[in-house]
Queue: 3 jobs
Job 1
Amino acid sequence: MSYQAITFKNAVGLAAPHTWAASVFPVLLGSLLSVALAERFDPLVFLPLIGAAVLLQASVNTLNDYYDFIRGVDLKENSDEPDDAVLLYNDIDPKRVRLLGACFMGAAVLLGVYPVYRGGLVTLLLGAAGCLTVVAYSAGKHPVSYLPLGEAVSGGVLGGLLTAASFSAFTGRVDPRVWVLSVPLIVGIGLIMMTNNTCDIERDRRSGRKTLPALLGRERARRLYGICVGFWGFSILALTLLFFHRGTLASCLGLALSGPALLRLLRAPLVPALRSACMGAVMRAVLWTSCSYLAGIALDILL
């Protein structure tokens, strides 16, 4: 069977730039915390960190699409968006897509060499853990994405581990406060995955995926979702007040502006027919709330 070559448009679609906020914001948070808690910052570390984080996210997205395709999870009957199912709607060799995902990861590792050199063993171990999680998320006999761990792992690795790795690249250590201060990003990024999985309950059940929403059912999943959204906003205000009180006004203003986005999440039915709208809403909410949190920390540093 002959296949078409992967075009630049295909590669971008597989990398899914609309999800990159989930990797950029943790690097920004880790960088701000290195200034706030340790008075350390180096643009020569910061720039490759951003690039490595984005490429790691691109690798996750590409490999996840590859494994969903070869396992028969993505079908035209349940994936009616060509931009969200590149392998289904383009005659591309799946092996080349797998290679592209590996290339994204390889490029991320290369960009991470200097930050790891500056951060030392701690940064190396955190970075290695992140790369292993990328593979374990979609590959293997029991991938993480097929278990009721996806929300916790995606939030914990991107929101927590990546923030800690970024902080350690500047400081050479991990401060326990960094993990606590990562909670808003851990919850927000976990909610991205929960939005997707709740919308896809029926498809995931048919394919044998035992995601958390698939086990809970839509109504109980939506109740848990609402609790997480409320805790998300509360955690931003509480942590800003406790650690960066001089920036509280900025965080409050940002959360007020993000109020409509958060309300849309609370009212979202999270059904397959509205999957695109729900994913767009949660990504906008993550953008607004993360900016609110970072603005509060940045203002506290400046004052």
Job 2
Amino acid sequence: MKIIFCFLLLFLQVYSFAQPKEDSISLNTATGIIQGSLFTPAGKSSYPVLLVIAGSGPTDRYGNNPMGVAANSYKMIAEALAIENIGVLLYDKRGIAKSMKAGKNEADLRFDDYVNDAVQWVQLLKTKKQVKGIFIAGHSEGSLIGMLVAQKVKVQGYISIAGPARGIADIITGQYAQQLPKAAAVVDSLFKRLQNNQPLDTVPPYLASLFRPSVQPYIKSWMKYIPCEEIKKLATPVLILQGGTDIQVAPSEAMLLKKCKENVSLILLDSMNHILKTAPADRRKNIATYSNETLPLYPGFATAIVWFIRKND
């Protein structure tokens, strides 16, 4: 029994030593400080780092938001990659969680603000001597942000995770076509008016939240970027990761995105949903996974990222 106990103690010491380290890191911007976490491999003096750009809405650095998502998906990515000797930088977007004070008034916020923030994070990583290479991964809305960042600063590779190929106007209009068909034509018309800088004089009450005056400038700044066009401009290696049971971004978007640019790798993970967990196609059961933080990442998801980074590091 004494020998077994000593062995277990030794195992626990080694296991503890191997755990990734999470350090606080901050970015000073003109409107306030953006807070993040840098996960680093244990015992390594140099390593590549993956910058993870979160999806839409009030999503924090770990991949959670107060609208029913408690998945810890981004944190799980960071922990899985750090064990494979890859650092990961996660951050709370401006106006979200611990970066709340860096937020802007809704009427002043633009899509490019998120792009510029991510560019500054890359520039900050470049000043750290232990970082030997930088990769970008953008999830959902973050996919397009990541494409734009990779055009502005040199990185070793770019990963689109559940990123659409079409523009936001087409995506939202398509969603209405499926869920509320009679409203689709109205939604399309309102987007076109915004695109042509025409005022939205009358908006149906059921669309008032989507097209409220304070958010219109942000939508206009977002609409001018089409992922299919932006991915063509990338000079860095590209990996597209997509779940087969994603009920927010259809697998067809990933397939279309791959067609937009030559020499792009696409990995389709059959039963992975939008929060990067194993889930059935059934909508109710799929959504139930969003609030279950105990579910691990989809098997093979982190492995695909490690493969891509090691291939291009």
Job 3
Amino acid sequence: MHEAMFYQAGKDGEVNCGLCSHYCRIKEGKRGLCGVRENHGGKLYSLVYGRLVAEHVDPIEKKPLFQFLPGSRSYSISTVGCNFKCLHCQNYDISQYPHLHEGSIGGKERTPVSVVDDAIQTGCASISYTYVEPTIFYEFAHACAKLAHERQLKNVFVSNGYMTPEVTHHLSSVLDAINIDIKAFTDDFYRKVCKARLQPVLDNVRLMHELGVWVEVTTLLIPGLNDSPEELREIAKFIKDVDPGIPWHVSAFHPTYKMLDRNSTPVETLNIARKIGLEEGLHYVYEGNIPGRGGENTYCPSCGKELISRYGFSIRENRISDGCCGDCGRKIEGIIG
């Protein structure tokens, strides 16, 4: 076990966890909602420090990040656990592992040095903390991220955006990019489907951007739950208000876990969502999970020229030159080089 960060002693042996916006009050011998932080003798411990269940070399586009080192590879790691309980989680076997296995914590012992070494040896430009909500293994992620920066690697979070403001400020010094899910634009959806709230997520999109972290946003469109034109327009308006240059990924849902009663997202819904995003003034809107249709390409917001041609997570051609459109010279938002 590794002593946790961001907690305070409470009354009668309790500890108050300040890692995420659930602000769990954890009694002696109990764990937080994430299932991987436990109170022992009035101290909070991470049960997953260095215990990785997933290590893969992924294209950065898989995160998805389309305007952060496009075409590069990212060393992707995860432990078990999550602070959300999404009914449609595609990685539920690891995100809900402690809850599904009577509190058991799986994983292979690793160190920050071994993770960074492997990232470099496999030719990766970054390390991605992903697959589950990486905030729940923050202590290990932060240790890896500090070392990664020392060795000229970038750091990426793929996140539900539920960390506390204190954690966001602390993380921003070592984080280069983040993809945050805005899963819907109603508290009702977040409470029923994710067991969480919307506002902390919106606050973190704004705060991460203000702190200089490159932000991209993803919304998985679930038929009948979060895909109405009205709700999509509200999401687009919010992103535009933060920065119209933030890319918005609107992705197709496929039935999984406890949400097998819904159909997959129709292609037309993605088309409508992309159109709405562009109508509301967003510069970059991408259609995800249905490759080969053009909605995954990057276009210049000024002249409309196709700049990056993609098929799924693969880049066919990149026509951006020195971070600018090769035709009109407009600066393209992101970390393109």
